[in-house]
Design goal:
The structure holds 2 protein chains of 2 kinds. By secondary structure, chain A is an alpha+beta fold. The longest helix of chain A is centred in the middle third of the chain and has 19 residues. In chain A, 25% of the residues lie in helices and 10% in strands. By secondary structure, chain B is mainly beta. Chain B is built from 5 helices and 30 strands. In chain B, β19 and β20 form a beta hairpin. In chain B, α3 packs across α5. The longest helix of chain B has 17 residues. The chains are: A alpha+beta, B mainly beta.
Amino acid sequence: MLALGRERSAAPSLADARPEPVAVEIVPILDEERLPTLKYGSKKPATLPDMWQKPKQIPRKEAAPKTVAPMPSKVGQPTTKADPDLPATKPVGPEPSSEPAEDAVKKADETIPALDAGPPPATTSSGVADGVPSGTEADPLKAQQVSLYRAQLRAWFASRFAIRGKVPFAKLKTLMATATVLVDASRRVAGYSIKGSGDPVFDAEVDKTLAAAKASGAELPAPPDKYPDVLGSSLTLSFQCTVASQCE
Amino acid sequence: MQSWSYGILLALGVCALTGPALAESPKPDESLGTVDVDGGSSAPPQKLAVVPLLTKGNADTLAQLVVRRDLELSGQFDVTADANAPKGPFLRETPIDPKAWRDKGVDLLVRVVADEQATTVKLRVDVWLLVSSKKDPAFSRSFEIPTAQARLGAHRVADAVLEAVTGRAGGFASRLAFTARVGKGQQVFLVDADGFDLQGHGPATDTAVSPAFGPEDEVYYASSTDFGPFRLVRGPLATKVTLPIPGSVLGVAFDAARTHVALAVMHEGVSQIWWGDAGAKSLASKVKAPLANHPVFGPLGKMAWVAGSPPRVFVDGKAISPPGFAASAPTFCDSPRGLLVVFTVGVGKDADLVATDSAGSGITRLTQAQGANSYPACSPDGRLVAFFSTRASGKGPGLYVMPIAAPARAQRLGSMEGESLRWSGVIP
C-alpha cells in the first residue's frame, strides 16, 4: 500500500494536464432494503429492526386494592408441554377462591414490597417500624434492590412474550399462566414447566416464549452484587397481559 | 394385557411428573418471589432528588455537581430539578423531612457533602428511601481522597449511590480511551466518564490505534511510526512491549481482571487473534480467520471479534451479527437487559448501533436515522454505551452516552470525534 502511494506521488500532477473528460466507475451504495436477497434456508430478512420505542408506562400503583380480583376459572390446568429436562413441579399459581387479601396487596405493590406505610407490627421480631406484618424483607435497601431486579427480570421475559393481538383483550386480561424456570450457573434458561391458563393460544405463547428463551441461550440480567443468591436455580413467573394499550 | 401395561406405564409417568419430583424440585428464591410478566408494561423510573445544599467551598460544589450529573447520565432515575425541592434553604444542619420530599413525588433522596482538609477531601453521602417514613438515611458512606482526585472521589460517591439503590455499583469512576486525528498523526486520548478532563496520551506524531486499559491502569495501544508496522506499546512514552510473535498489531484487548490480553496480529497477509497472559510473554493462537480483528473480552468467559468480508461479529466462534451487513466494534454489556453484545452495523452511508444477546438473537436497534453512530464502548457496570455520532440533529456530532435500557435518553458528553473507543474502571 505504501509502495502504491509512492508510485502515485511520482505520477505527473493532474494540475498540469488539460482538463478532459475522464470516465469514472460509479459503484452505487445499496440501501438496506435493496440488499441481495438471502440465500435459501434463511428466514431472516436483511433488514434491521426499528429503533427501540419507549413503551407506554403504566401508572405506579400507589394504593392497594381493597378487593381481590376474581381469577379465571380455568387456572390450574397444567400443560403437558413441560420441558423433559425439568422435573415437574406442583402448581404454583394462586388458587381462585382461597387467595388471601394480604397476598393480593403484596402483588399489587410492584415498587417496594412490604414497605408501604401501615400499622406498626405487633411483633418483636426483626423488621422495620413502617413495614407491614405480612412483609418478608427486613432490610429496606435489599427490598429496593430486589424490587429493581424483579423489574429487570419482568422486562426480560416480557420483551419475549408476544401475546399482543392473539387473544381478544376481554378474555386476555383474565388469563394467567405460571411457570417455573430452571436457571443454570451462566444465567441461562435451562428448562421450565408451565401451569397453563386453560386458553390454548395463550398457553402456547407462554410455551413458545420460554422455549425460545431456552434455545437462544441468552443470559438473564445479573442479580444485585450484594445478593447474588437472589437469582437461585429456579424462578417462578406469572404471565399475564392486563394493560389494554399493550395487549390489544 | 397390553392395555394393562400401558396403564401401569401411564400411572408411573404421571407419578414421575407430579409425585416424587415435587420433593426434589428446587425451591424458588423467597426474596424474589413470583415475577409478574405483564406483556409489554413497564414501571416508570423512580424519582430521585439531590438535596440542593448551600455549598461550602469548591470541593463541596464540585461533589454536588458531579454526583448529580452522574446520576442523570446513568438513566436509572428521573432526577428532579432543584426547583422542585421543598421550601429551603438547605443547610448541612437542616434535618431531612421525608414527608415534604415525598409530597413532591420524590422516591429517593441523596445528600452529598465534601470538606477540604489540608491535602485531602472528605466526602459523605446519605441516601433516603422515601417510601419509608424513616428520618434516618437508609445508606451512608464516607470517602477520603487526595485533593487532586476530588473529581474521581465524587464519581465514586455516585457509584456508591447506584450500588446502594440498584444493587450494582455505578461505572463512573472510570475513563474512556479513543484515538483521534492530530495533524498527520493519530493520537490516543483519555477522558473521564462524564466527558471532562480530556487529555492526549502518547506521541501525537505517530499513528495510534486500538487503545486498551491494561495492568496497573496503564494504556496499551498499537503504534506505527513513518508508516511502519504497528507495534504494541504502553503508556505516554509509547514504551515498546516485546512480543513473541511477528507481525503488525491491529487490535488490543484486556479482560476485566486485566490478567489476560488478546491481540489481533497481521503477518504475511494472514490475520490471527492471539491470547495469553497480560504481559504478552506467551501467546497462543485463538482465531485464524480472514481479516480477524477487534478482539474483546466479555463476562462468563466469552470473547468476541470481527472477521470476514463483509465483516461480521463473532462470539466464541459463532457469527452473531445479521448476514448481509458490515458489522464492527463489538462490546459486551452485562446490562439490566441481560448480557448483550452491542456493535456497529453499516446502513447505507451511515451506521447504527444494534444489540443482540450473546447468541445473536433478539436484535434491537439502539440508533436510527441519526448519522453514523460507531465504536460503542460499554461502561464497566454494563448500564451505559458510549459511542461517536456524526448526527446533525439535536446537539450535533460528538461523543455520546446512552443507557442501554433507554436509548432515547442518550446525552452528549462533548464534541470529541474519534475511533476505537474503550471504557474501563479506574483501579482504586
